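S1.2 Input.
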Amino acid sequence: MSEFKNLKYAKTHEWVSKEGDLITVGISDHAQELLGDIVFIELPEIGRVVENNEPMAVIESVKAASDIYAPLSGTIEAVNDALEAEPTIVNSSPYEDGWLFKIRLSADVDDGHLVDYETYQKDYVE
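S1.3 Output.
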């Protein structure tokens, strides 16, 4: 799959897909590999207002628990309810079925801290 190369990435390993003022957020394949088998995901509440880089969700694996940070500021518009019953979807499909939540962006959001796939791989993975 090459769609992940068109996404933007945060240094905290979240990916962002942007459609107008709505973004979909998940974690990178690299992040899910580091975590190992995911056993639980605590997603944010719909309607919650989040600020860039604010911890707002938690993923627990057999190895560790890890915070998920808001890559941009806005309001939580949707969460992936399927992950409640089957959190391992993030392991098997981090860029498609394993998305975590959607944020309706605030006005004047600066996404200059997000990087493209090549920069993410070079600066944060390797």
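S1.4 Remarks. The chain is about 20% helix and 35% strand.
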